Here is the input.
Amino acid sequence: MATRRPPSARRPTSRAAWPPTSSAPPRPRPRAPGRRPRRGGAAAAARAFVAQHPASAARAQAEAAERAALARRVEQRRATPDERARLVALLSAWATDAPPDDAATPWLAVGEVLLEAGALDAAERALARVDGPGRDVAALRRATLARARGDLDAAERLLQGLDPTRADVVLERGALLRARGRPREALEGYLALLRGLEAERPPVWWEAAIGAAEAYAELGDPGQARALLDGLRRKDPTFGGDEPRRRRIVDLMVRLDAAR
Here is the structure.
């Protein structure tokens, strides 16, 4: 006959309320081999902890755990739209509330996520915190933001500290020159990139080609712009194999045809 274990040794039939006696942030539970994790389990547990213990000293730790869990789900392409929105909200708040000397947060990555989500003010705050490696990239992103907002002088100041021969800097300076009504100067930079990177044709080469075509159109020469894009299509009908880029170029061709 099997020995009946005392109540204290029996396995619980349901999960106890978590945490039972403390206000510690959630910790991942061990998972049986082959068992799939619950969708958003770690992030949901951290969020529930904050809701249940809003005054806990461990609240900041739990919020950090939720941000990390949601970021992993985004990286794994498993995040739901609600989870993506929640991550943007958390990152936006952290960009404002983080201590001034916070060096642990990957601010460049945070800024990129916020930029992609269209949270421009929060992205600016995050990018302004970047120091050390990545600072030049952050300055370039901030220049793009400033130009998009119409603050062309701020964009110019941010570009002044960057290597003017870098391809991505040349692209942004070209966009800034065009915003200032100087497409001819922008065109010179675009054409220099096209000549210098013709053999490799990296993504920045295609962006320079689009910029050059747009600059030709702004100079009142849509025919030359169309001829440039036709030349690209003869070289590579897929426009580098990037479908969104191909659609952009085809749409630009249609606009140029309408302007001729």
About this structure: Residues 245 and 251 are 10 Å apart (CA to CA). Residues 5-24, 28-38 have pLDDT under 50 and may be disordered.
